[in-house]
Amino acid sequence: MLFLLLLCSNTRILAQTIVLGNEQNLSQPLPLYLNYAVFYIDSAGVMQDETITTQTFHPYSYYFSSVSKHLPVNKTTWMKLQVQSNYTNDTSIVFYPGFQNNVTVYYAAGGRFTKIAEGGNLIPASRLTIEMMRQVISILLPAGVMSTYFIRIKNRTPYHVSEFKPYLMNRESAYELQVRLQN
Q1: How far apart are CA 96 and CA 66, in angstroms?
Q2: Which of 5, 102, 142, 172 could pair with 154 in a Cys bridge, judged by C-beta atoms 3.0 to 4.6 Å apart?
């Protein structure tokens, strides 16, 4: 019994792979906090981006309790998710982290860690992936492969307007969300 407990405690927590294509096309937003992503909080906020791949990630409930689901201020929150694309052509998906200061998306493949997109209310408009939409980020999804993404979220100010509940969606759902948020 003790051996089994030790074995489980040293096992890395993996999120459920998101499979897109066929039936799943993100016409309804996919809640990443429900076992589709894993999380790591860098309490010091000084970890080098590339070293995040060596950290142990945990499920949403490990960091975000039923009492508080808000991101910490002056710490860096990381998300890791894997997406299997069954599409025949490259496509884009949209990541929605809610109202955050600074969000950066990295693509990890072949030992490389590449910054691919930014968003958030402190990012200049010229660097947004979808014009005039600071709180959503368009992410390129290569066709026919499993892709691993790391998402870094930094907040300098407390935003307790809404709980941290990130979603993955298609572009049409993102536009519908923007209209709802503006009304």
Answers
A1: 21
A2: 102
